[in-house]
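Design review, sub-item: ligand-bound model
Attendees: FS, YL, KQ
YL presented the inputs for the adenosine-5'-triphosphate complex:
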Amino acid sequence: MGSEKNTGFEIKDLKISFKVFNGELKVIDGVNIKLNRGERMGLVGEAGCGKTTTLKSVLGILPKQAMLKSGQIMFNGEDVLKFNSAQMQKFRQESCAMVFQDPSSALNPIFKVKDLMINGMRNSLNTKDKSWEKEAYGRAVKALGEVMLPDPKRIMENYPFQLSGGMRQRVCIAMALATDRHLLLADEPTTSLDVTIQEQILHLIHKLSVEKDMSLVLVTHSMGVIREMTDRVSIMYAGTIMEVGDTKDVLENPGHPYTRALIDCIPKLTGDGVAEGIPGRVPDYLNPPKGCRYVERCPKATAVCREEKPQLVECGPNHMVACHNFGR
Ligand SMILES: Nc1ncnc2c1ncn2[C@@H]1O[C@H](COP(=O)(O)OP(=O)(O)OP(=O)(O)O)[C@@H](O)[C@H]1O
Ligand SMILES: [Mg+2]
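KQ shared the predicted structure:
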């Protein structure tokens, strides 16, 4: 309403397939994610559910086998999927940043940290002003300090291979922070890191997202991290959002059998032994079930689940679930 721009972010009915030699993998099947400015959203689901594919589609960095079937990705009232390459480059350099699962492939090895960071700011600074590089250098050093890298000026002179995995991941985060982005997509940002620094990095991302009023989509396999870090959570299964709501509410009152199964996988402190995974596996994307994609593994499945894909419907305040059996 009014002249104020909507600074929210919304993925609407996204569908993506991958072309393979024997057909089409129908991986992303109607993903909907909505997030207000400054909100932190968790994205959870088993391996192969399409979390990374969803995030990559936002930045237009899907592999060439990917086929966009339908959907919109709205940011500031514009559809990112319709951006031309100049608009997309501007979007990546000014508005949205991504921290990848594997930091070793995220930084171009032939450039020094200094060049990577300064180049990343080219679009958001006035490059007609001769002192822009000085300004960019200053911002880069400051951002490296914010991610608690010791001796930022020395790190600026390093090549990525001279840094540890944890340091590289911090550089990626610093690159995202050197300009004031509105949206950070963090894809399991700590999986490849030493356990001792995992927590530090997560706290850092949380703190900076609060301080900079930056929206965050955080992919993680840990419900504990979701509980600590996020305001809302989306539960994804086989390319579909099965449940979404306020984090505490979803974790305490899960509405979908899949969410319940994921929560039951968390090792209980009082329990004896290690948690087991959910029995069964993610469906074959070449021939996914016609109805609910969770049908083969769901203890509550009925005939309608085989036939019709359930839509997300309200199941409580701010809480939606896609399950035919909810409330039955
Ligand atoms: N380039 C590709 N060609 C064919 N299939 C692909 C390609 N990239 C991804 N896929 C398939 O898409 C599905 C979703 O993959 P994606 O990496 O998005 O899952 P994820 O939820 O991020 O998993 P993880 O938790 O393991 O990171 C997988 O079945 C994967 O095999
Ligand atoms: Mg992934």
